[in-house]
Amino acid sequence: MQAKIKHFGGQISNYSGHVVTFLNVSSGLGVDFNIAEGNYGMPGVEYIQFIYRELTKKGDAITTRGSASWLRFHYRYKSLYFGSYFWFAHNFFAPDGNQIYGCVSDYKDKYVIPDRKIWTNSIYFTLKPGEIFEFLLGFEGYYDFNLKKMDTAVAMHINFDRRIKLISF
């Protein structure tokens, strides 16, 4: 479960818009299936529900309420990850979320695509050399059913998950 509140305006500043407060809440459930103790990989499924509200209802937001559902299928095998995800949204807006999933345009002023249906496929390769850090290289392909458009993204992440011990003399 996750909740995020974002607020603009009301401060002593030159902010030109009205006071506006956004709320995004999400909750979900996921199940992984351990096949033969992981020798053949680990498939899984997740369902996540998102709710969006603009709390002040007098601000500059184009849409004041929306929702989205995310159905995710995945398969992990050693260093490989495959995923296929279905996204369904109605008037959904997340000011800090991935803009490809939102219904409110991030480049056209006051433009809303009320309903979004997006199918995403991904593949990731992860290395953990020496368990000091994690290196991920991935590719994602998105298909927007409403706009009838395809988009892609390439990802590279380096995550330092452990403390690096320095030798002192």
Overview of this structure, please?
By secondary structure, the chain is an all-beta fold. It has a domain at 2-119. 0% of the residues lie in helices and 54% in strands. The chain has strands at 2-8, 20-32, 42-54, 65-77, 80-90, 115-127, 134-144, 149-159. Strands 1-2-3-4-5-6-7-8 form an eight-stranded antiparallel beta sheet, with no helix packed on it. A hairpin with a 2-residue loop joins β4 and β5. The relative contact order is 0.13. The model has no long low-confidence stretch (mean pLDDT 87).
Subunit arrangement of the protein: single chain
Content of β-strand = over 45%
Anisotropy-based shape = globular
Mind summarizing the main beta sheet?
8 strands, antiparallel
Average residue pLDDT: 87
Adjacency order of strands in the biggest sheet: 1-2-3-4-5-6-7-8
Rg value:
20 Å
Count of individual beta strands: 8
Helix/strand order: EEEEEEEE
Distance N terminus to C terminus? 46 Å
Structural class: mainly beta
Distinctive features:
about 170 residues; mainly beta; 8-stranded antiparallel β-sheet; 8 strands; about 0% helix; globular
SSE blueprint and pairings:
Elements: E1 2-8, E2 20-32, E3 42-54, E4 65-77, E5 80-90, E6 115-127, E7 134-144, E8 149-159
Antiparallel strand pairs: 1-2, 2-3, 3-4, 4-5, 5-6, 6-7, 7-8
What's this, in brief?
The chain has strands at 2-8, 20-32, 42-54, 65-77, 80-90, 115-127, 134-144, 149-159.
